[in-house]
User: Fold these one by one.
Assistant:
Number 1:
Amino acid sequence: MKRYLIILLTITLLLFQPSPPPLYACSCTTEPIPPAVAYADATDVFIGHVTKVTPPYPWSDSTLNKIRHFLGIPKESPTSYEMTLQVIKSWKGVDTSTVTVKYDVYDSCSSYLDDQTTYLVYAYNWGDDTLYTYHCSRTRLALYAASDLDYLNSLPTIPLQSTDSDYSHWGLLIFLFILLYFARLIHNWFNQKILHF
């Protein structure tokens, strides 16, 4: 009798368990916010073309992960990708022609920004002079940001200043020109000295 009572109680508990709330793949906890609110919340808002994507440390090259593997400890998960973007237009914050943004990756839903693609970026600076964006922000392909761009294009833009790297090739050319000019002067001076002997 006791045995049947335990079985009946177990079946009853299994049938009447409270169900967990539904889970949605790759969903954010809140509804998408309007562009005006996203603009107000972000420290930097701009359109940029991704020129370089640097993933978190590679597993195979990480000495720490080799030691963890040897000891049977699971690998640490990557935290954030670092993207370099060529800024096309800025409405808030960014005033340079290139910028680096970190994109936090927490799970399989969080994908990084694709290389050689143009994005509208809502970035956040949380006090460490690093810009971040994340899966649930309004950061998206510029191609799919029409409602955001309608709002943003009604706002003034920030003039972009060139970064040092923009002029690095000009500096090299000027240096080579000056070097050739002095080489020519020295060459002429030697030719005049040799002719006077």
Number 2:
Amino acid sequence: MADCYSGNMSVVLALMNQLYDIERRATQKSDQERGELRAKESRRILDRLGEYLEGPVAKSVLPASKLGGAFNYIRNHWEALNVFVNDGALPIDNNQVERLMKRIAVGRKNWLFTGSLRAGIRNASLMSLVASALRQDLDVAMYLESVITHMLRGTAKTDAIRPTRPFCKQQDGASAPSYARANSKAKGSCSQAIAVGSSIPPGSGAPDGHSG
């Protein structure tokens, strides 16, 4: 029985590894190119995985076993598992979000008391801002200093200082903010990037906090 279960798991893991191999190849591609690659190759692998899970070998696994529970979990979330194939902008999994949430889980032990409900809301807002900056591979300390400085001076609109898009050297030669790492791996192309502070009127303060 153990050998049978091991063989079942090997087939599923091999198919999952193929999906992640495709994702690694698509790392530097645009969302459209990634979507096309997924439609061409990932879809075929997912179809094979679905056929295997609905086949007699996988169905013979005891539902009460850990492997049977894992197979049932995939079957129950099959529709959600297939969503990423139809949108190149979506990640294949939510591992990055899980890693960010781990910081919250670990921090709770140290933040047992936040002082008040309002303090808790402020803390949540700050951590959301930090998490967004981390996802864009920004220098968090420099980014927060720039944001706080501009908010206190009133030299930037809120929409212009949100870390919602990747930053890189602009095609027109304009430099990205100083807190945007030169070797940033944040997903996105320069043609689509919007530098923080791009909507700030001339002379009202540089977006990287160097003047104002």
